[in-house]
Amino acid sequence: MDILMQSVRIEINEKLYLKDPESSSLGKKIVEESIHMIVELGFEHFTFKKLGAKINSNESSIYRYFENKQKLLLYLAAWYWGWMEYRMVFATHSISDAKEKLEKAIEVLTQNVEEDNAFSHINEIVLNHLIINEYSNSYLVKEVSKENKGKKDDYFTICKRLVARLSEMITAVDKDYPYPLSLASTIVEGSLHQHFLKEHFPTLTNCNNKINPTDFFTDLIFRTLNQGLNG
Amino acid sequence: MDILMQSVRIEINEKLYLKDPESSSLGKKIVEESIHMIVELGFEHFTFKKLGAKINSNESSIYRYFENKQKLLLYLAAWYWGWMEYRMVFATHSISDAKEKLEKAIEVLTQNVEEDNAFSHINEIVLNHLIINEYSNSYLVKEVSKENKGKKDDYFTICKRLVARLSEMITAVDKDYPYPLSLASTIVEGSLHQHFLKEHFPTLTNCNNKINPTDFFTDLIFRTLNQGLNG
DNA sequence: AGTAAATGATAGTATTACTATTATATTCGC
DNA sequence: GCGAATATAATAGTAATACTATCATTTACT
Predict the structure, then answer these.
(1) For residues B8 and B119, is the Cβ–Cβ distance under 8 A?
(2) Distance CA A172, CA A181 (A)
(3) A130 in Cβ contact with A35 (< 8 Å)
(4) Percent of chain B at pLDDT above 70?
(5) Is B25 exposed, middle or buried (0-12, 13-18, 19+ CB in 10 A)?
(6) CA B57 – C1' D20 distance (Å)?
(7) In chain B, positions 32-61, which contact chain A (CB-CB < 8 Å)?
(8) pLDDT at A140
(9) pLDDT at position A159
(10) Amino acid B25 CA to nucleotide D27 C1' distance, rounded Å
């Protein structure tokens, strides 16, 4: 996996940037450092001015790459989902048994990212934290739908594809299950939520150092889909 | 239900306001109109200045009730959860059968709010929309934990109590189910999420005009908890 | 009527989220 | 290695935001 990773690139919707940050070292530094900075300060207190100072560059230079900080966040989210989709597809590709396949997919999607695969200049561990802490569909969508009525789906293509794939895997295990999309989106979003609770509100979850969201969701899925199969 | 409601009052943590908005007509107008305005403009574009203009009052007067708009949002969220808890407890109180009780609780928690019970000056339908669109734990918590390290839980007492109650109902149905808290928090948050998707990203959910989140979650819960009981 | 409390009006500050302009590096074709 | 393009940096400026402070006015209370 690690070796292959070097040559894979996550494609991001062009509308999310003005100039491709992958095309220069400044662009890479912007992406790289913004992740750390947003985690550190929280998204609201993150500004291009502060980022410029940190990377010894200039506010105005950053504006040449990203229209505003919301777009940068969307870019990071798109990258994250693209990366998750890649990992999910890669990890499940060779598995033919539907149950095993779904189990593996859920494992990849719900586990905590614990090592930086050195896929790129992006530190996936920190990005994972960023998404857990800052990813709020509502926030992102508000911005998007205002500027981009009717086209908003473009920005979420990857996330939609991921949910659709997971939904198909669910159907492959239980073709009669009536809510595969809702279950898939509940897993994807719910996983972020359980990680969040584990960190900030431990009394609202059973997840802790020993039990992780993967255990919870794996159990949930197979209890739900095994109905009638194991009876 | 309707008559009783008149005399019930949702208690809100005092730290969320400077002066109790329930104590004056200006305070009530602030709360009442802010709900509409946040739904209309989105939280980020909502300001006390604009609110002041709309209610023919003054920015500075609003600041005497709420420290800032984040606190106002926390106040509204606390009210919402208090109201949901009340409705849940009220609706399930007389039910002795554990399964029926849980089913009713889920119904109350996941259904769309469709009528304004005239409980107070607060329009619950619009508030429900606000929470669906703007409620992001991450956002709220960031604010809270910064200013209030160690005390952050205070703000979420009601929401925590709600999840704890639901968790207990789950355990009452299946005392061996290992993740009652996670399941409860997944329902509460997941319900908002499904409503959100239904409105903004219909391809990510099976919920629509005919199927609603209540159907999905009721089905999910009983598939999950009936393991071994119905076998 | 007199006092306190609530509200309103106005002004002011620091920060943010940009845009515009001009200057300085850096890269690239040749 | 030179000149032209391109990228980046520096600086300045604007409108809006998120407040704070002060003082004036209205309302409520006894």
Answers:
(1) yes
(2) 13
(3) yes
(4) 84
(5) exposed
(6) 18
(7) 42, 44
(8) 56
(9) 87
(10) 13
| Domain spans, chain A | 2-225
Contacts of B138 in chain A (CB under 8 A): 132-136, 196
Q: What does the alpha-carbon distance between residue A157 and residue A55 come to, in Å, rounded to a whole number?
A: 31
Query: Testing the interface with B: which of A179, A188, A220 to mutate, by most B Cβ within 10 A?
Result: A179
DSSP code string of chain B: -HHHHTT------GGG-SS-GGGSHHHHHHHHHHHHHHHHH-GGG--HHHHHHHTT--HHHHHTT-SSHHHHHHHHHHHHHHHHHHHHHHHHTT--SHHHHHHHHHHHHHSPP-S----SSS-HHHHHHHHHHH--HHHHHHHHHHHSTTTGGGGGHHHHHHHHHHHHHHHHH-TT-S-HHHHHHHHHHHHHHHHHHHHH-GGG-S-SSSS-HHHHHHHHHHHHH-TTT--
Contact list, B189 vs chain A (CB under 8 Å): 189-190, 193
Q: What is the mean pLDDT of chain A?
A: 87
Using the Cβ of A139 and the Cβ atoms of chain B, whether some distance falls under 8 Å is answered with: yes
- CA-wise closest residue to A132 among A80, A85, A92, A208: A80
> Nucleotide C9: nearest residue by CA–C1'?
B58
Percent of chain A exceeding pLDDT 70 equals 84
Q: Is the CB of B15 inside 8 Å of chain A's CB atoms?
A: no
Q: How far apart are CA B92 and CA B88, in angstroms?
A: 6
Closest CA to B190 of B125, B122, B121, B132: B132
Q: Does A70 touch chain B (CB under 8 A)?
A: no
Q: Does A229 touch chain B (CB under 8 A)?
A: no
Is pLDDT of B230 > 60?
Answer: no
- Asked if A136 is an interface residue toward chain B (Cβ–Cβ < 8 A), one would say yes
Q: Please give the Cα distance from B170 to B97 (Å, whole number).
A: 12
Q: Residue length, chain B?
A: 231
Fold annotation for B2-225: Tetracycline Repressor; domain 2 (1.10.357)
When CB atoms are compared, the residue of A135, A206, A230 closest to B178 is: A206
